[in-house]
């Protein structure tokens, strides 16, 4: 497959980028190139290396990004760094007619707060009056679903909850040794502090 990642080297996307390269996909990364060095995978049984194709630009420089994307089409494009509706409006202008599927990385924090039920499903309402980040993600989802309904823009929305990588585990509370020490305490059967009511 021919795949475009906006970002591609962050907490969620770095592992996905590596896996796609291992599987032999043609991966394009549109980013500033700050963390692209060394991102490659050896293809099994061939000894050959698969590296991403870099489109080096700040995605917010829309005019330059549009020029660099000219003539390219993708099976899938995913934005890992869109936080607000205007980011998705930019993505739509850049990728309309250029991708068979657009993946938006939203957030599980968009789900209803406080929860009406402890079980969260895709039918759980999206409403979080406590965090602007979540409200922005909801607004972005609404925008994309409107594009899907009215224009057939092919969108998939993913709402990750707890994300981590080799650099960080996102926890509300941790000590001076960083977030990984909390996991170490769990593995050792020691108590850990959980913020809020634990949900």
Strand content bin: 15-25%
Order of helices and strands: EHEEEEHEHEHEH
Terminal Cα span: 38 Å
Give me the count of strands.
8
> CATH fold name of the largest domain, please?
Rossmann fold
Rg estimate, integer Å: 19 Å
The average pLDDT score comes to 91
Report the helical percentage.
25-40%
> What structural class is derived from the secondary structure elements?
alpha/beta
- Strands of the widest sheet, in order across it, are 5-2-1-6-7-8
Proper CATH architecture of the largest domain: 3-Layer(aba) Sandwich
Largest sheet: 6 strands, parallel
Tell me the name of the CATH homologous superfamily of the largest domain.
NAD(P)-binding Rossmann-like Domain
**Domains (count):** 2
Structural key phrases:
alpha/beta; 8 strands; globular; two-stranded antiparallel sheet; Rossmann fold; 16% strand; 199 residues; 2 domains
What does this 3D model show about the protein?
The chain has two domains: 2-167, NAD(P)-binding Rossmann-like Domain (Rossmann fold, 3-Layer(aba) Sandwich); 169-199, no CATH class. Helix 3 (85-95) packs parallel to helix 4 (132-151). The protein is built from five helices and eight strands; from the N terminus they run βαββββαβαβαβα. The protein is an alpha/beta fold and 199 residues long. It has helices at 13-22, 62-69, 85-95, 132-151, 180-187; strands at 2-6, 26-31, 41-42, 49-50, 53-56, 76-79, 102-105, 155-158.
């Amino acid at each position: 497959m021919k795949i475009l990642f906006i970002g591609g080297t962050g907490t969620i996307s770095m592992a996905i980028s590596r896996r796609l390269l291992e599987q032999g996909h043609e991966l394009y990364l549109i980013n500033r190139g700050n963390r692209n060095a060394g991102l490659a995978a050896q293809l099994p049984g061939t000894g050959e290396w698969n590296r991403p194709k870099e489109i080096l630009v700040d995605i917010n420089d829309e005019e330059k990004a549009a020029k660099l994307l000219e003539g390219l089409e993708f099976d899938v494009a995913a934005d890992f760094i869109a936080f607000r509706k205007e980011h998705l409006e930019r993505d739509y202008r850049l990728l309309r007619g250029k991708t068979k599927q657009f993946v938006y990385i939203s957030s599980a924090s968009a789900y209803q707060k406080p929860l009406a039920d402890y079980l969260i499903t895709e039918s759980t309402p999206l409403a979080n009056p406590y965090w602007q980040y979540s409200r922005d993600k909801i607004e972005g989802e609404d925008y994309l679903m409107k594009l899907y309904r009215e224009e057939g823009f092919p969108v998939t929305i993913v709402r990750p909850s707890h994300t981590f990588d080799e650099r960080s585990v996102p926890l509300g509370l941790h000590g001076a040794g960083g977030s990984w020490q909390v996991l170490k305490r769990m593995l050792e059967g020691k108590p850990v502090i959980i913020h809020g009511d634990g949900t």
